[in-house]
Amino acid sequence: MDIGVITKNDSDFPKCLENEAIYYLGNRSLLKNRLFTITGTKDADREGICNAKDFATELIKNNVTPVTGFAPGIEKAVAECGECICILPGGLFPSCIYPKVHQSLYKEVLEKGGLLLSLETPDTKAAKWTFPKRNKLLARIGEGMLVIQAGEN
Predict the structure, then answer these.
(1) Which residues face 21 on adjacent strands?
(2) Is the pLDDT confidence value at 152 over 80?
(3) Which pLDDT tens digit goes with each residue over 43-90?
(4) pLDDT (mean) for 104-132
(5) Taking the C-alpha atoms of 85, 87, 93 and 48 in order, what is their torsion angle to the nearest 10 degrees?
């Protein structure tokens, strides 16, 4: 599977983007579906993990694609559910996957028909400045957003 690029000239380019391009790996056709973002704490408890998986599974059953980040906790639970879109804070080369412990999740998302997206070039390591851009896309790409077990601050 090769990393591709979607530009503003492509019909499936996310209209919410201010960038000129976005990099992808996996099932690009998911971008044509209705999208809904699910995010939440990295320190999720069992109930939060179950809720995240239940919501993501129901969205998929109803032809809505879950969108999430790639963090531990809630986002990892969503990513494990099947045909979802994961937005990464760094590039899409395996050596750039963040967090490193999600190397197997990277493969799992692709094997289950999911899509990995990044605003960064494929060789860009996640850095302090890449997370706000990723988070902005997470907040804007879907028709709505569900936050599960967020902290009080």
Answers:
(1) 7
(2) no
(3) 999 999 999 999 999 999 999 999 999 999 999 999 999 899 999 999
(4) 95
(5) -80
Q: What are phi and psi of 137, to 5 degrees?
A: -65, -40
Q: Rg (Cα) of the chain, in Å, rounded?
A: 14
Q: For residue 15, what pLDDT band results from cuts at 50, 70 and 90?
A: confident
How many CB atoms are closer than 10 A to CB 97? 23
* Residue closest to 57 by CA, chosen among 34, 33, 82, 36: 82
Six-digit token string for 138: 């997470």
Give how far Cα 10 sits from Cα of 21, 28, 30, 84, Å: 10, 12, 14, 21
C-alpha pair distances (Å), 152 with each of 10, 21, 122, 149 = 40, 35, 34, 9
CA 68 to chain centre: 4
- Name the pairing type of β-strands 4-7 and 21-26: antiparallel
